[in-house]
Amino acid sequence: MSSPTTATDAQLARWERFRAGRNTALATEHGWLTLTSFQWLESQPFGVDLVPGLWSTDGTTAFLTASAADGLTVVETGQPVEGTITATLQDEESLMWVQFGGDDGKQVVVELAMRADKYAIRTRDNSSPVLTGFVGVPTYEYNPEWVIQGRFEAYAEPIDVPIGTANPLVDGVHRSVGEVVFQIPGVPHEIRLHAEEEKLGALNVTFHDETNGETTDEWRKVFIPRPRPDGTVMIDFNRAINYPSAFTPYGTCPMPVRGNSLDVRVEAGEKLPQE
Question: In this structure, what is the dihedral angle of CA atoms 208, 209, 213, 215, given to the nearest 10 degrees?
Answer without folding.
Answer: -130
